[in-house]
Amino acid sequence: MTERPGRVMAEQHQPRRIDVLIADDQDLVRTGFALVVDAASDMRVVATASDGAEAVRLTAEFRPDVVLMDIRMPRVDGITAARAILEGSEQPPKIVALTTYDNDEYATRILAAGASGYLLKDTTAEGLTAAIRTVHRGGSVLAPSTTHRLVTARPPRPARPSALLETFTAREREVFDLIVAGASNAEIAGRLNLAEVTVKTHVGRVLAKIGVRDRVNVVIWAYENGAART
């Protein structure tokens, strides 16, 4: 039987869900996070892994958009697995560390490996799904306590802001200040009365000019270089 054109068109325009892989060595934790993810209408769990080696293998097989990665796991830890995943694919997934340990060394190492976020397992269901959407869109997420320590542990701010700020256009400086204040792209678009796609362009230029990979490092760079407006 031939499908009606209207029905086919409707199905073709259904937004694709975010595919998520969960890596954690505790079965109950994997099950709980899977229930949270699958309850969201715009995402689904495509695979779960009980250690880092399995996470690497299943990521290559299922090609998820986002990997929720525990840090301390048997055989291969989450940091090593994240590095292998991100270095071994032309189109790697976004990785969010999801751990019990509010540990600056772990956070620094997995972010340096290329992860897009570091969250604690006591995050809310809403916080977890919001983080998945954020990194899938190209943003980054950090546990608030981790962000505070990473910023305040930096060397004292210089007396004069970095000369790189002088290379910003007026609009780029506005976007930069709002990133440092913690605003999302959607919030920046609303504040500046811009299309979100335009904001993404400005964010990309800001990242390129100061030579950082993501929004988390924009905040750190701002405090290191006396560029955070308080």
From TrEMBL:
Chain ranges of the Response regulatory domain: 19-136
Record carries keyword Iron: no
Pfam families named among the record's database cross-references: GerE, Response_reg
Keyword flag Methyltransferase: no
HTH luxR-type domain span: 161-226
UniProt keyword list: DNA-binding, Phosphoprotein, Transcription, Transcription regulation
Signal peptide: none
Modified residues (4-aspartylphosphate): D70
Name used for this protein in its record: DNA-binding response regulator
Molecular functions (GO terms): DNA binding
SMART domains: HTH_LUXR (SM00421), REC (SM00448)
Gene Ontology process terms (BP): phosphorelay signal transduction system; regulation of DNA-templated transcription
